[in-house]
Structure formats: structure tokens, C-alpha cells
Fasciclin-1
Amino acid sequence: MPSAFRRCTLQAVLLACLCMAMSPWRANASIIEKLRDDSDLSQFYSLLEQNIIANSTLTLRPCTVFVPTNAAFQRHHGPTHVLYHITTTPMTKDELIKIIPSDMGGNPSLYITKNRNGDIYVNNARIIPSLTVEMTNSLGMRQVMHIIDEVLVPLTALPTAKIEFTNLDAYQFLKQADLLDIGENRLRSYRSQVTLMRRDNLYQSPGGHTFLIPVDEGFKQTTRSSLVDNKVIDGHVIPNNVIFTAAAQIEVPQTTAAFEDNLKVTASFFKQKDGKMYVKSNTIVGDEKHPTGVVLAEIVKANIPVRNGVVHLIHRPLMIIDSTVTQFLQVGVRL
């Protein structure tokens, strides 16, 4: 009887070992194996296979990988930069810090936001918490994989640009905007005012900030450009707070750099029923040049990461009150 019991026990152990060996999600499976065996992550795995540096990192080094789902790729247009989804420090959800250098050339930053609901975002992509896994590779290197709902998009130069730009700050972004991949948007009018008012240092400030930059279309009314003084420029920056639209607190006023004793301006994010995102400035305390009131501007290109935060391009300058919010919404056109 004891001999039969031992045989049954041995068979059970062998069967359990066989099942573990056959399982693609076994404890010692590598990230590459998990990607290969998960059909919902096949598009990222296909790109990873073609990237020698990414393959080397996953084989030889500790790392964290942010992996978009196939559904995220269906919504994505344009190239995918695999190395912008990798950092060479392994971090679980609890270990994620606010600013993380990516493994892409120049190490452009990834920004982590943790909101009050417990959601965690990397740039504008939400981490799906139940799908995060941690493991070690064949060399014993610790690695973490987070699944995200959006492809991460770094700031890059236009294909026609002869110079490659990496990890620009907000001021360098303003200076080189004509050579950057930001669509048809031009920033020459606002850039001229920033230079004229000597507010370059505001856009060069280290750390993490949110920069709201009006495009040239918003200066078709010629008087607007002359009204963009140093205080108006300050009202387009939310200091020490990196806000991507998906993680933004809607209708929550944020203190801008134009918040002092005699002038107090806040900015908040606003979402219409049609899904369009807007930013709203509110001059709570004004002066002769800066009247109190609210200005609403549509975000025409959102979530552009720079070395010292994030840039949102808006269709008109804030703080310059030449129409009411009600008129803007009723007409439904860009002023």
C-alpha cells in the first residue's frame, strides 16, 4: 500500500511538472515568450522581433516594457517607436516614478500619472492593472511588463528634416516646430511673442510642466498678437504639473504661472459631448491689460511629450477676451 501511494504521488508530481512546462504563462517564462504566446499582443511582438536593440535588452538586461494591445494599434496612425516603450529599470505599478527615461535614442521621457481613482497612466496611455506581470529572464534579470491601451508616441522630426532631434525641451520645441512632426500646425506668431517678451526661460525650466501653445490660426485677428504680453505667456503654462488629456481632471482649475498678488489665472480641461478636448483659462483677478473672464480654446493636437513636460497645441490664445464662451459654443467654429 505505501508503495502504491508513493507511485501515485510521484505520478501526480510528474504530471504537475509537465503541465507547468507546457504552460506559456509559467513562472519562469520570459517576457518575449509571453508576448509571443498572447494573440492580443501580437502586433507589438511583431515589431519587437524586428528591433535588434529591443531584443538585446529583453535578453540581457533588467527592464520595464509598456506593451500596447492590438486594439490600441487599430486606433494608432503612423510609425511605432518600440524603444520608446522600454526603460532599463524594472518597475512594478507601485515602483513607477513620475519621470522615466525611455530606451529610445536620446532617452526621451515617459511621464507617469496616478489619479485619485487608482488609475495609472504612462503619458496618455492607461495601464491595465490586472495584466501586469513581473519575472526574471534566463540571466536572472528582473523584468516587468505593463499592458497599455494606447501606443506611446514620442516627439519626432519630419521625414524631410535633415537633422534628427532628440529629447527637446519646450523652448527647443518652439524654435524647431517647423521641422517637427506636428501636422499642419505652425507656431511662428506665438514663438515671436515669447522671444519678444524674453520668456524663453519659462519654456526651458527643468522639471515637469504643461505648456499650452496657440497655433498661428489663432492669430488671424491681428490685435491678438499685440495682446500676448509676458503675463499672457505665463498664463499658458501650468508649472510643476504634467497633464496628459486622458489623465486630466476635467473642470478642475490648475494654477498657471500667471498667479500672483495682482493677477490670478487658472487653466482647466474641458470635454465636449462630441469628445473634443478644450482648455479653459479663467482670469479670476485681472488688471487694466488683463480683464477678468473665461476663454475657451480647442486642443488641436494634444499630448506632445518634451523633456520638461507635455505640450498641447490650442487653436487660439488664452486670456484674451474678444468673445464669450457661449458665442464660441453656439457658433461652433474656430475663432
About this structure: The first strand starts at residue 63 and ends at 68.
